[in-house]
């Protein structure tokens, strides 16, 4: 079943959510949000400004003391209520998510479920996170406490809105911070709905969780610059991460940055190819390749290279793409990103790479106005080519051969990024050796993107710093205080 192109009369407006209520933008202006399956506007989101950010931050600051001082077990109960409400409203939230992202009907509910798991996980941890007593001898009592920063800014991208909003907001709230979230202007709606449900139906006090909408230059920069914001978590591009880092450095506030990736996925000749081939397909084509963790460089040992390439071509050719609810690969979320991904087809041709499947510049005709890119695999690739070094952020895979373990590690680490890496082998010793040698924050063995909300996430090198997810995230949303008393 294909989607109908929405009529202009169906456009829905989304305002900021500040201090427990909707707020129209101070400017009175709105930005169109598009359905990527049809290339047509479906919603309008508030075009925020520094004035809107100031209103939200001051609401969060006013609510900070009471939320900080609330018993952790009470904070946890509210967060568990939010998790339950997300599950109760899962179909509703998923429809909002798909409306602006174009995700297939089967995919959005999975991401909504992960959002619920974040609130469930951190709600359960809210009463567990403590400091420690330090032994200094009989004459002293020394201890540490972990305290919230106060107002935390959470800036999220457009590729997985509800998932990434929950990933940052849930641990921040559990640690006793208040939050001002700034989602992408392209996919704002599900974050606004999350805030509304949390505050109006789950007992989260007004001002504890606020959402400001608008473009990054107008709202994101104002949020990072605001003197009452004490910590920022940002997920997005390296370019935007650098810009935010400059502002934060001037203010001397801490950042968590989860940026880009060009992650290697390594298939050794002893790998179980019945698992590795479909795993490699999912690693680069999931969410239409719009995943910073995507395994977009497939390193294959030469002895099985031909076999892998042949099987990969057949597997990728069978992947269903389109606006249908059962399609495995949906559209690229924004028109600008769609044009960027397609530009790499010509770059690949100039590099001398060979498309074994996909790479068709005329493929747009198949889906009319939708922003679809068929999964594309290039062979004959060397690691110095642009398509092997630059993050494409679309369903494009490059296959690079290697001779032995040492060469695999060298190629894998020869990148400015260090977000994730995959290893496919049945040799346990090799798995540990290679995992230790790879310069990346997440290593997956025999299942790409193994793990869950419990496992920490973050990068090396230009992929950022700090950690999200897991118990580790709570360390990044609190600051440590040491108290020493002479008895």
From TrEMBL:
Active site as annotated: 258
Residues covered by the Aldehyde dehydrogenase domain: 27-483
Coiled-coil features, chain-numbered ranges: none
InterPro entries assigned to the protein according to its UniProt record, in alphabetical order: Ald_DH/histidinol_DH (IPR016161), Ald_DH_C (IPR016163), Ald_DH_CS_GLU (IPR029510), Ald_DH_N (IPR016162), Aldehyde_DH_dom (IPR015590)
Alphabetized UniProt keyword annotations: Oxidoreductase
GO MF annotations in UniProt: oxidoreductase activity, acting on the aldehyde or oxo group of donors, NAD or NADP as acceptor
Superkingdom, taxonomy of origin: Bacteria
PROSITE patterns, A to Z: ALDEHYDE_DEHYDR_GLU
Annotated Pfam families: Aldedh
Family: Belongs to the aldehyde dehydrogenase family.
Protein name from the UniProt record: Aldehyde dehydrogenase family protein
Organism for this UniProt entry: Glacieibacterium arshaanense
